[in-house]
Design a protein that fits this description.
4 helices; two-stranded antiparallel sheet; mainly alpha; about 100 residues
Length: about 100
């Protein structure tokens, strides 16, 4: 497979068939293979900058199940999406 960088340089990257299928499945509209790779790299870089934010991919099924069980058993300890977004904005506004 080849991915084209913004400066018109071409790099050859060998990927497995599973990785290729996953990348192709992420394409939307008229995106190219390279567009998807560029977006994936950007997302990975953002994830590395914000390590404190857990992503669903970083959690095992057991951990997710435990979170859902706790939320059902103790809804008073949970915050709404709006509350969570407000807390996140306030936390990052201070930095």
């Amino acid at each position: 497979m080849q991915a084209v960088e913004r400066q018109k340089k071409t790099k050859t990257v060998t990927v497995s068939a599973d990785v290729h299928r996953k990348i192709v499945s992420l394409r939307r509209g008229d995106q190219t293979y390279g567009d998807v790779i560029a977006e994936s790299i950007k997302a990975l870089e953002e994830k590395e900058q914000r390590e404190a934010i857990p992503l669903i991919d970083d959690m095992s099924d057991e951990e997710l199940d435990q979170l859902f069980r706790e939320a059902r058993e103790h809804p008073e300890k949970c915050s709404t999406l709006e509350e969570s977004m407000k807390e996140y904005e306030e936390m990052h506004r201070k930095k």
